[in-house]
Design goal:
The structure is a single chain. The protein is mostly helical. 70% of the residues lie in helices and 0% in strands. The chain has one domain: Arp2/3 complex 21 kDa subunit ARPC3 (Orthogonal Bundle). Helix 3 crosses helix 6 and helix 4 packs antiparallel against helix 5. The longest helix is centred in the last third of the chain and has 30 residues.
């Protein structure tokens, strides 16, 4: 187990994501679309804790979110892939500290997640009238919130696990 996962309350913060998805705070919406809370939580976690932990918590987060919206669409594979990729970025390269970089990574992650859901809708033959609107609004809002929220989480989690290189 990694440094962050050993601390009970940091691992329990994953439960905030489904709560925020269900609550969907109105002030944090753009044209009725909330940000991708999964991306805003998974990005700093994976950067601070590494690829294995990022992929594992991406799977947990995907299962939690998929259980909220029963149906054929799933977020699980994309969240696992992004958790692994962001964890590798945090371990292999220079530490990601710039807010712009966090915003760009969150924007890219949300676009990949939205594109995956749109592709699944297309493959299942489901109605996708608002898919482009949702994809664009969610991507923009997540990219704008990420520099603030992800920076704070990343600073906190790096302080809690000082032995990790991230």
């Amino acid at each position: 187990m990694s440094g962050l996962a050993r601390q009970r309350w940091t691992l329990a913060t994953v439960l905030l994501v489904p709560l925020l998805v269900l609550a969907a705070p109105a002030p944090l919406r753009l044209a009725g679309v909330p940000p991708s809370w999964a991306v805003l939580w998974l990005l700093p976690w994976a950067l601070a804790d590494g690829p294995l932990s990022g992929a594992l918590l991406g799977a947990v987060l995907g299962l939690l979110l998929d259980s909220l919206h029963p149906g054929p669409l799933t977020q699980l594979p994309v969240l696992v892939l992004m958790g692994w990729w962001w964890g590798r970025l945090g371990r292999r390269g220079a530490p990601i500290e710039r807010s712009f970089s966090l915003g760009l990574l969150a924007l890219l992650g949300t676009a990949l997640l939205g594109a995956s859901l749109a592709l699944q809708q297309l493959l299942w033959g489901l109605s996708s009238a608002a898919t482009v609107h949702t994809l664009l609004a969610q991507t923009l809002l997540t990219g704008l919130l990420a520099p603030m929220l992800c920076s704070l989480q990343l600073l906190l989690w790096r302080q809690l696990a000082p032995g990790l290189r991230s």
